[in-house]
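tokens incoming
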């Protein structure tokens, strides 16, 4: 029986409709699952969609001005309704997974939507504390903090958070078939703080958390300076890398993946959710220039997880 994947189009004024259509037309996907696309019709049609590619659910109840490609209140509301619709399908077991195209956080704010993004919405509405992870082949990274300013990162990292996220990451890696995951924890400060000369988070917070995790039989090592941690992971010593903040994970990943050909995986929800790891790209939206490999990778990874779950 074919699996069902709900695909939200993200911000309709962004590249979501285009990359979704391009991915659905890929020979790697055709006839391998049943897609349900959710979002705004006009931008989807302009991107080359037809009913042979997928089922479609419309979440647009107001006409959208397609001439100006920038954050817009109506577009924000459309994309938010698409996410809510996809979640309802997944929770009702009418979809086996969700793949989300990029939304505009600014557009959500303009529409008075109180969430900073998909993960924040999931956390506050599904009573869960999911893990934000990123996958590119054998390169796997997870975040302790997500979309927060750099100056607030130290205050948001405590022993309990590290333990909770590391345990989730350990389970996520096991989900991928790694029987005994080996994880590397990044330090927060340069040179791991140099014994407190450049910060003491490694001494007071990260190292005690690692000790506690080892007592829980989580095979985690560190904290290593970021450059060393990534080098060790790339060379295969570790199965995953636990980063303290967004760019500590995403910058090396984008270099390794040579762009956006890697997948964001939200682990710890009651359903599978993946997405491409890039934004709305308003500057090229509607011009048929957008690369779809990130969306294709997200759909393929979701299918992989669904099939593994069924085994």
């Amino acid at each position: 029986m074919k699996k069902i994947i709900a695909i939200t189009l993200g911000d309709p004024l962004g590249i979501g409709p285009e990359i979704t259509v391009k991915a659905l037309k890929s020979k790697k996907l055709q006839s391998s699952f049943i897609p349900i696309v959710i979002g705004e019709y006009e931008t989807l049609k302009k991107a080359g969609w037809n009913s042979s590619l997928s089922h479609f659910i419309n979440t647009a109840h107001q006409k959208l001005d397609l001439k100006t490609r920038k954050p817009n209140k109506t577009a924000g509301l459309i994309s938010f309704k698409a996410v809510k619709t996809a979640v309802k399908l997944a929770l009702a077991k009418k979809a086996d997974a969700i793949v989300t195209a990029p939304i505009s956080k600014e557009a959500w704010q303009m529409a008075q939507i109180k969430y900073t993004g998909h993960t924040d919405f999931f956390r506050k509405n599904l009573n869960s504390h999911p893990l934000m992870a990123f996958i590119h082949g054998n390169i796997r990274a997870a975040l302790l903090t997500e979309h927060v300013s750099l100056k607030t990162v130290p205050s948001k990292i405590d022993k309990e958070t590290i333990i909770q996220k590391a345990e989730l990451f350990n389970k996520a890696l096991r989900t991928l078939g790694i029987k005994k995951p080996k994880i590397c924890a990044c330090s927060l400060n340069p040179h791991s703080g140099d014994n407190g000369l450049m910060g003491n988070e490694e001494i007071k917070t990260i190292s005690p958390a690692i000790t506690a995790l080892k007592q829980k039989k989580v095979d985690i090592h560190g904290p290593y300076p970021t450059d060393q941690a990534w080098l060790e992971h790339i060379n295969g010593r570790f199965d995953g890398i636990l980063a303290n903040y967004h760019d500590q994970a995403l910058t090396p990943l984008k270099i390794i993946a040579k762009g956006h050909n890697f997948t964001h995986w939200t682990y710890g929800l009651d359903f599978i959710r993946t997405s491409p790891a890039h934004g709305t790209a308003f500057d090229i939206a509607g011009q048929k220039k957008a690369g779809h490999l990130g969306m294709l990778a997200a759909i393929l990874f979701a299918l992989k997880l669904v099939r593994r779950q069924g085994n």
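note: The chain has two domains: 1-128+269-311, 135-260.
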